[in-house]
Amino acid sequence: MTTQLSININKVALIRNARSGNNPDLLKYAQQCIQHGAHGITIHPRPDQRHIRADDAHTLKQHLEVELNIEGNPFESELPSNRPDVSDYPSFLTLIERNQPAQCTLVPDTRQQLTSDHGFDLRKDGERLAPLIQSFKNQGIRVSLFMAPDTEQITLAKDVGADRVELYTGPYAHNFDCEVHDKALFTQYRDAGEYALSIGLGLNAGHDLNLNNLAFFKQLLPDLHEVSIGHALTVDALNYGLKDTIERYLSCLQ
After folding, report:
1. Which residues of 232-254 are buried (b: 16+ CB within 10 A; e: fewer)?
2. Could you report the average pLDDT of every consecutive run of 10 residues in the chain (254 residues)?
């Protein structure tokens, strides 16, 4: 099956925010990604709005014709902005309700984290998540949960009503870069992904996937629905140009 490439544009927003103004223009960059073959755009607006901002979500939703995937911690509350040129963070729930993305990916990150680094523990958070997931689904929004490759946890993801799981691939990518690969870890990802599919969940993946390790991950899980890639793709675009870079990532997914 064709695995969709959703490009995370957080790092492009981070560059824009380093100066005043709108350079690079986030919407134009997203549109270029689509022109070059990307299937979707992913954003992860955090409460401190250090990269993607709440207003960006609205702009992208209004002008993009591909799937918008909004990631974030569903338990995040409103956070006032300390800058006159940046609107308040309205809470994750309000952000989703206002912008109605095709998919929301729920991630258990905290405000102090530099980046997402673990999946949900649904033994702890499942009861809180279930009504939120149902609310999103009632709005016609597909819900994916950021998860470790743990079949017990994936079973709970199905139980709380998720449509998909996104496998957290940080450990996979780290192991892939080692001189001696832990083949048991690769097997764990394959088995977890296949199990998710077998119980009726869609399968996404993301975090530290790149041109070196993506093709092998696709071989492990050929029925993967979507990958979300941002940091590595942005860096590769500096070396190869955006069009060539996207074509390389799409080739890895064939």
Report:
1. bbbebbeeeebeebbeebbebbe
2. 96 95 96 98 95 96 96 95 90 97 93 72 96 98 98 98 98 86 92 98 97 97 98 97 98 96
Tell me, what's the pLDDT at 149? 97
Catalytic residue of the set 39, 51, 76, 207: 207
Catalytic residue flag (residue 71): yes
CA 17 to chain centre: 21
Distance, CA of 184 to chain centre: 25
pTM exceeding the 0.85 threshold for the entire prediction? yes
Torsions phi, psi of 197, nearest 5?
-65, -35
Question: Is 207 in the active site?
Answer: yes
Terminal CA-CA length for the chain:
8
Active site residue 36: no
How much is the pLDDT for 114?
Answer: 61
Out of 44, 76, 166, 225, which one is annotated catalytic? 44
**pLDDT at site 178:** 79
What does the block give as tokens for 221? 């899980």
